[in-house]
């Protein structure tokens, strides 16, 4: 594998690192923001969820620019949004200003969830595509761990609740700036170039990405074949009968991903620990353990995702979800009801154990599979919009769970919250066993046949046929 392939995949996945950092950095600030701006539980949930509203918009709008202007220019815009969001959040003087800049950063996160996996999938050879696209997920969880570490260090060094939350947000500007600078060192994807009339440039880049003339020609022939199949469909409608199967697959995996409760738990990890009886300092340190487990389990998954496949990982992850969420729900019910909320050091350790099993199950299953799976299943002619749809679904449910988690856990208790997540994960296990296909090792150009998709008459590209949609 050429160094340029690895470098391009790593640079694109750095967008995932800032994505993960932005996702988790808020966890260290929630209680301080609540006190500093005098927020209720419900308004805190709204303020935290504002970034997720941005991700919804970013996921919704990123697909078309990525298809029209290229993957690399959109990644550059995403980096600028990351930088502006970090600096603006750090300097905000009121809650409205903070929400605006968190919203802008969220647009970058949503856009990255669309563009980074597409970019890497179109750069990588099929035999290692899962591992290289999985680098996006690896850097997301690395970013989460770095955010937890950064928050703990800032808290220890600054030790001033009035300003340390500003430093927690501001630190994110550093990886955002590095991402922007490194983007200048990578090429546009050959698939996008060849699809947009820049065939020679695409061929030249393929030559730099492949290890032999034979491999280069094979990749060129595959791309040519897929483009010829779609050349009469420049305005293919997305929501057609022929695309129903992949649309439902993307919706299901994205919805289940967030209904596990992963983002709610990542956003409020220190709060959950404190409610379970840990001190504030211990809660921050425990959140680092959660982030570290996330990283280790993701690394383990990436070593086997192209060997045992996406579906097998999802089965293991689903079982782990049910065990950990059932344990956490039962534990919370016991302490909240039988012991009347008498949480202590033992309860906080037990909750930490449950959260570690939960995060391991997520990282080894859903976390490592979702972006690989969604980037693979859509036909070339609608891949950008398909990735956008999957990301949009993911972020809508992320917003729902994260916004309503504080009032639910505050009003009904952790037992109810974790029980709801467990019920959804039972549904996920049934879906994986009965519906989810395996996609490992299948070239993107052959995926449509593998999934047994049918061509809708409107897929012909006939503008008159498309008008009905």
- Shape, per Cα inertia axes: globular
Oligomer: single chain
Query: Helical proportion?
Result: over 70%
Calculate the terminal CA-CA distance, rounded to whole Å.
43 Å
Strand element count: 0
> What gyration radius follows from the Cα positions, in whole Å?
22 Å
Strand content: under 5%
Q: On the 0-100 scale, what is the average pLDDT?
A: 84
DSSP helical segment count: 22
User: Pairing-aware structural class of the strands and helices?
Assistant: mainly alpha
Largest β-sheet summary: none
SSE pattern? HHHHHHHHHHHHHHHHHHHHHH
Q: Low-confidence segments, ≥5 residues, pLDDT <50?
A: 457-469
Mind explaining what this structure looks like?
By secondary structure, the protein is mostly helical. It contains 22 helices and no strands. Helix 1 (3-25) crosses helix 6 (129-158), helix 5 (95-123) crosses helix 18 (366-377) and helix 16 (310-338) packs across helix 18. It is globular, with a radius of gyration of 22 Å. 54% of the residues are buried.
Task: Please write out the topology.
Blueprint lengths: L2 H23 L4 H7 L4 H29 L1 H21 L3 H29 L5 H30 L5 H7 L2 H10 L7 H6 L3 H11 L3 H18 L13 H16 L2 H6 L1 H7 L4 H25 L5 H29 L6 H20 L1 H12 L5 H29 L2 H21 L12 H4 L12 H4 L3
Helix pairs in contact: 1-4, 1-5, 1-6, 1-8, 3-4, 3-5, 3-19, 4-5, 4-7, 4-8, 5-6, 5-18, 5-19, 6-7, 6-15, 6-18, 10-11, 12-18, 12-19, 12-20, 14-15, 15-17, 16-17, 16-18, 16-20, 17-18, 18-19, 19-20
């Amino acid at each position: 594998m050429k160094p340029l392939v690895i470098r391009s995949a790593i640079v694109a996945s750095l967008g995932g690192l800032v994505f993960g950092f932005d996702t988790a950095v808020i966890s260290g600030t929630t209680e301080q923001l609540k006190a500093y701006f005098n927020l209720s539980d419900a308004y805190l949930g709204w303020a935290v969820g504002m970034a997720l509203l941005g991700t919804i918009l970013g996921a919704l709008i990123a697909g078309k620019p990525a298809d029209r202007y290229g993957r690399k220019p959109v990644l550059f815009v995403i980096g600028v949004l990351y930088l502006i969001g970090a600096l603006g959040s750090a300097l905000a003087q009121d809650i409205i200003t903070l929400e605006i800049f968190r919203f802008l950063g969220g647009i970058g996160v949503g856009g990255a969830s669309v563009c980074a996996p597409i970019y890497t999938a179109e750069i990588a050879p099929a035999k290692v595509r899962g591992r290289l696209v999985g680098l996006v997920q690896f850097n997301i969880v690395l970013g989460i761990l770095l955010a937890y570490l950064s928050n703990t260090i800032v808290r220890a060094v600054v030790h001033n609740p009035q300003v340390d939350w500003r430093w927690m947000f501001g630190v994110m500007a550093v990886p955002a700036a590095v991402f922007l600078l490194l983007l200048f060192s990578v090429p546009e994807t050959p698939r996008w170039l060849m699809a947009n009339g820049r065939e020679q440039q695409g061929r030249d880049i393929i030559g730099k990405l492949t290890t032999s003339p034979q491999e280069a020609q094979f990749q060129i022939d595959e791309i040519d074949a897929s483009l010829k199949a779609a050349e009469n469909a420049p305005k293919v409608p997305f929501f057609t009968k022929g695309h129903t199967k992949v649309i439902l697959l993307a919706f299901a995996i994205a919805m289940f991903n967030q209904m596990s409760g992963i983002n709610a738990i990542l956003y409020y990890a220190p709060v959950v620990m404190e409610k379970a009886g840990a001190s504030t300092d211990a809660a921050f340190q425990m959140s680092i353990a959660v982030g570290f487990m996330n990283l280790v389990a993701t690394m383990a998954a990436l070593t086997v995702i192209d060997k045992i496949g996406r579906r097998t990982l999802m089965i293991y992850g689903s079982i782990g979800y049910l065990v950990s969420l059932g344990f956490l729900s039962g534990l919370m019910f016991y302490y909240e009801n039988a012991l009347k909320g008498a949480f202590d050091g033992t309860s906080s350790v037990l909750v930490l154990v449950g959260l570690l099993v939960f995060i391991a199950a997520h990282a080894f299953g859903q976390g490592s599979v979702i972006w690989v799976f969604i980037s693979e299943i859509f036909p070339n002619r609608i891949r950008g919009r398909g990735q956008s749809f999957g990301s949009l679904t993911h972020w809508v449910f992320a917003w729902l769970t994260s916004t309503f988690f504080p009032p639910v856990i505050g009003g009904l208790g952790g037992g109810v919250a974790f029980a709801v997540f467990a019920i959804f994960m039972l549904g996920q296990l049934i879906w994986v066993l009965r519906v989810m296909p395996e996609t490992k090792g299948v070239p993107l150009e052959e995926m449509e046949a593998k999934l047994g998709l049918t061509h809708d008459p409107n897929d012909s590209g006939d503008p008159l046929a498309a008008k009905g949609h």
